[in-house]
Amino acid sequence: MKKAIYIILITLVSSFILSSCLTVEKKEYTFEFTGPDSGVLTVKYYNIMSSTEDGEDMSEADFAELIKTYYVGDQLEQDYPLATGIEKRLFEEDGVLCSEVKISFDKLEGARLYQHSSDGPYMFCVKSTFDGEEYMASNGEYGGEIMPVVFWRNKEMVLRLVTSVMKQDESTVSLLPQYNKWKEQE
């Protein structure tokens, strides 16, 4: 049954020439250190949506892309090539589709963190992220628009960051209905 669903999803994606319009409302990053340069980065994607293209609902194709490329595909492994392990899950929360990705790393670069020296702050560049993210909140210090970097004291063991990507409006379509259909067929 899972193979049939997978083949249908691949066919759907292949039949659409238009690029993916996947987006999320916000992303929550949590970096938890287990050693001096190692730990687990958990990224929660809150309210996964599809953007309409010229008023056309692309949610079926975008959900297929989500499954094919991110959930069973290796896009996250490509995005985090220095990760030592990646776990993924999709779930419903507060009436929206969410995803959680846990990325194990044994070097700061594996989680896209930077530290100039061992006694310097941890740093994360918000503008270098992929989805046009904007800083919302963190337990660190944000450098602002001129320096879009979050700085955390080097003694912190848990670093938190929340970014906004896109507000849900009439140009977006929730992927929760497609997820519920997919879950029923599993």
Q: What does this protein structure show overall?
A:
- Helices cover 23% and strands 37% of the residues.
- It has 186 residues and is α+β, with helices and mostly antiparallel strands.
- It has one domain.
- A hairpin with a 6-residue loop joins strand 7 and strand 8.
- Helix 1 packs across helix 2.
The percent range for strand residues is 35-45%
Give, in order, the helices and strands: HEEHHEEEEEEEEH
Number of strands: 10
Segments where pLDDT lies below 50 for 5+ residues?
1-18
Helix and strand composition category: alpha+beta
How does the major sheet shape up? Answer: 7 strands, antiparallel
Helix content: 10-25%
In whole angstroms, how far apart are the ends?
A: 7 Å
Specify Rg, calculated over alpha carbons: 18 Å
SS field, number of helical segments:
4
Mean pLDDT: 87
Overall shape: globular
Brief overview:
The protein is α+β, with helices and mostly antiparallel strands. It is built from four helices and ten strands; from the N terminus they run αββααββββββββα.
Provide the descriptors you would attach to this structure in a database record.
186 residues; alpha+beta; seven-stranded antiparallel sheet; three-stranded antiparallel sheet
Topology, pairings included?
Blueprint: H1 2-15, E1 22-33, E2 39-51, H2 59-71, H3 75-79, E3 85-93, E4 96-105, E5 122-125, E6 134-138, E7 141-142, E8 149-152, E9 158-164, E10 172-174, H4 176-185
Antiparallel strand pairs: 1-2, 1-9, 2-4, 2-10, 3-4, 5-8, 6-9, 7-8
Helix pairs in contact: 1-2
